[in-house]
């Protein structure tokens, strides 16, 4: 049986991880390689690196970081942030990234999904969607939830699947940062519409929230950042808790 | 020393990184003469099986690979290449292992691609020495190799039972990515590099 995946997400700027991470035995909390290895050791099934670098040097910096991570890491990882063209994706693939995630570039140019899927295969293309509830509708947002688009979330995800997205990373901006649980209603609805894996994101605060999102929305994976970085939830404990609740996991 | 068939089908950085971590030495196979240099051969592969087969033909190595008597390991699409045929691009393949590569059927109520960690049940085979039953490996694929008890050396379930690994004589194939499957995957790579026929 296919396991449900637990995915820590790391923010990266100029090749360094940002946001406080307080693992006790880390020598350098800003070193993405060391942090990634630590998560793999703990039993993370996959990692997502979100690049927030905004300089012209970004592709080069990112490629170097991806290579360093790929040299050490023995689990799959996804790179997101700033990928706008085939050449960006190709550089990351050749550096050892397993998947890339695209967000605003796909909203601006949906054909990018198709082009990436045709060039590298659907398994390489993750579509990240930031969604917010507005006037009774789920609307796609950009820039971390600050900019609303005209796209309804459900329609956009369906369109992306048709264009060749291999996986959906759905972040509820209403739940993100609240630590009050995932948006199980929307995740369940979207999950029933599509035939590609979906990663739940936004709202994780406790182990029960993970159990809930797998049981209620039957998502394929759940992603979180701060609860893992600050050691509020330890991945081995989380996996045991999920197993106790009869959710298939990799121990 | 492991030779990696260099035919341009997908990135091999992660594979060479895993071999580096295991202290297994390797080099690239670009020509027929290169095949002589190595004791073990890996056929990597990501993407479209039909397209990968065309690229492999382009190297002129097809007949020489089929004649190899040293251990050969196909990974993912590289495994599919050693089968007879793939529904992906209706492609005739190397036909070293006479089984077929088929598309997962979404009417089985499964998502495609099959992506993530799934349990593998190995048979008693040197490639899986030290790997326990139900150990999980990382898979990413939309096409699978039909289960055939004659050639199957490890099976997995996703809507139906399929071959996670096959063997015929010196030819081995694994559908999962050993280079991305944690310690268990590294063990399989290590076992392969230690195979002697």
TrEMBL record, chain A:
A GO molecular function assigned to this protein is: lyase activity
Keywords, alphabetical: Amino-acid biosynthesis, Cytoplasm, Histidine biosynthesis, Lyase
Q: Which residues form the active site?
A: 11, 130
Q: What class of enzyme is it?
A: lyase
Pfam families the record matches? His_biosynth (PF00977)
> A GO term (biological process) for this protein?
L-histidine biosynthetic process
Q: Does the keyword Cell membrane apply?
A: no
Q: Which InterPro entries does this entry report, sorted A to Z?
A: Aldolase_TIM, His_biosynth, HisF, IGPS_HisA/HisF, RibuloseP-bd_barrel
Metal-binding as a keyword? no
Q: Pathway listed for it?
A: Amino-acid biosynthesis; L-histidine biosynthesis; L-histidine from 5-phospho-alpha-D-ribose 1-diphosphate: step 5/9
Give its E.C. classification number: 4.3.2.10
Binding partners and assembly = Heterodimer of HisH and HisF.
Q: Which family does it belong to?
A: Belongs to the HisA/HisF family.
Summarize the protein's role: IGPS catalyzes the conversion of PRFAR and glutamine to IGP, AICAR and glutamate. The HisF subunit catalyzes the cyclization activity that produces IGP and AICAR from PRFAR using the ammonia provided by the HisH subunit.
- Listed PANTHER family: IMIDAZOLE GLYCEROL PHOSPHATE SYNTHASE HISHF, IMIDAZOLE GLYCEROL PHOSPHATE SYNTHASE SUBUNIT HISF/H IGP SYNTHASE SUBUNIT HISF/H
Q: What is this protein called?
A: Imidazole glycerol phosphate synthase subunit HisF
Q: Which organism is it from?
A: Pedobacter alluvionis
The lineage is:
Bacteria, Pseudomonadati, Bacteroidota, Sphingobacteriia, Sphingobacteriales
TrEMBL record, chain B:
Q: Where in the cell is it found?
A: Cytoplasm
Q: Which GO terms describe its molecular function?
A: glutaminase activity; imidazoleglycerol-phosphate synthase activity; lyase activity
An example Gene Ontology CC term for this record? cytoplasm
Q: Which UniProt keywords apply?
A: Amino-acid biosynthesis, Cytoplasm, Glutamine amidotransferase, Histidine biosynthesis, Hydrolase, Lyase
Glutamine amidotransferase domain mapped to chain residues = 4-192
What reaction does this catalyse?
5-[(5-phospho-1-deoxy-D-ribulos-1-ylimino)methylamino]-1-(5-phospho-beta-D-ribosyl)imidazole-4-carboxamide + L-glutamine = D-erythro-1-(imidazol-4-yl)glycerol 3-phosphate + 5-amino-1-(5-phospho-beta-D-ribosyl)imidazole-4-carboxamide + L-glutamate + H(+); L-glutamine + H2O = L-glutamate + NH4(+)
Name the domain of life this protein comes from. Answer: Bacteria
What does the record give as EC number? Answer: 4.3.2.10, 3.5.1.2
Query: Sorted alphabetically, which InterPro entries does this protein's record hold?
Result: Class_I_gatase-like (IPR029062), GATASE (IPR017926), Imidazole-glycPsynth_HisH (IPR010139)
Name the catalytic site residues: 76 (nucleophile), 177, 179
Role description: IGPS catalyzes the conversion of PRFAR and glutamine to IGP, AICAR and glutamate. The HisH subunit catalyzes the hydrolysis of glutamine to glutamate and ammonia as part of the synthesis of IGP and AICAR. The resulting ammonia molecule is channeled to the active site of HisF.
The protein's name: Imidazole glycerol phosphate synthase subunit HisH
Q: Which organism is it from?
A: Pedobacter alluvionis
Q: Which gene encodes it?
A: hisH
